[in-house]
Amino acid sequence: MTTATHPYDALMDITARPKAVFVRGAGSYLWDDSRKRYLDFVQGWAVNCLGHSPPAVADALASQAKRLLTPSPAFYNEPSLKLAQALVETSAFDQVFFANSGAEANEGAIKLARKYGSLYKGGAFEIISFEGGFHGRTLATMSASGKKAFEPLFEPKVSGFKKAKLNDIASVETLINGNTVAVMLEPIQGESGVWPATDQFLRELRALTEAHGLLLILDEIQTGMGRTGKLFHYEHTGIAPDIMTLGKGIGGGVPLAALLATERASCFEHGDQGGTFNGNPVMCAAGLAVLEQVSKPDFLKQVTETGLLLESELQKVSVRHGLGGVRGRGLLLALDLKLPIAPGIVAQAFEAGVLLNAPQLDTLRFMPALNVTKAEIAEMIGCLDEILTKAGAARRVA
Hints:
Elements: E1 22-26, E2 29-32, E3 37-40, H1 43-46, H2 55-67, H3 78-89, E4 95-99, H4 102-120, E5 126-130, H5 139-144, E6 161-164, H6 169-175, E7 180-185, E8 188-189, E9 195-196, H7 199-212, E10 215-219, E11 243-246, E12 257-261, H8 281-294, H9 297-321, E13 326-329, E14 332-336, H10 342-351, E15 354-355, E16 357-360, E17 363-366, H11 374-397
Parallel strand pairs: 3-15, 5-6, 5-7, 7-10, 10-11
Antiparallel strand pairs: 1-2, 2-3, 4-12, 8-9, 11-12, 13-14, 14-17, 16-17
């Protein structure tokens, strides 16, 4: 047992964190500096798609780091060329721009859409996004987001974003005017509590945008890279967007994101877009290792099957404790608690050695590694069941 102490004050206090300091991770587990083990069903908010420190990613990082860290984005490097080609070959897109975070990829998508509007739609610049959506923490992506907590922050925001209602095609159509250039959304709104756009709504949206000559932008930062049982969520619907953003899982634990676009939408000119570390060979080597694993049909089939198992187990928990429904797809799921008790459950689970996430006061979100095992699901469910049983008993006594 170690008794390490750490100074906390040097880090800006931007969120509430428990005092534990994590020092090691492997697969679905983390260990803190007191050697306590935690089962992780958050995985960096769907970042560690292959679990903590997967050998394939660690080996790719080490190997590339010994060869080349960065030649500058002014020059080509081999891993970025290979990863871009692999993404194009496995998707509906023709060109790729690499970034370091999902917010940066979404910022790039907004810029690309506005560039398209300036070139081909008479200067159109407005983008329709959605209430409850979350696209990042830059000023533009916060403006595109429909998160209520963002509304009073950092004013004035970037103008040009109108908000429609998810799964309400009429609310989108009402907002279209001569200044509209694109519609942007997450296929599943993660931060607001895992609210999916229906497949039918996404098909209607594709038809509507095509009828009006608008770009369709899908933010697949949380749903992409196999999270919902397809390599990309849009594959469930039979349609393809003009622009897609990826992040989180694409790096398997390292900072990597991507902006993908069709040839028609790829209208950046020299000097329009860039970034010092964008397309970094070490990060792209990790991305190649991730894509090689998650794009395998057998792997995606396993994600689907494991997701159905987790969904079934959560539904059983809901029935046992009189809770609400289970939302989501694949291994991005939420349990409706019907009461504002989610933060308390997260805190109790942490003490018991299980990491859960509460995106809303009445909602638990589950984002385990895509290779999570049945035994690990059973362990998490057992912990959650025990906490809910105690909470129910406490309420009855009260």
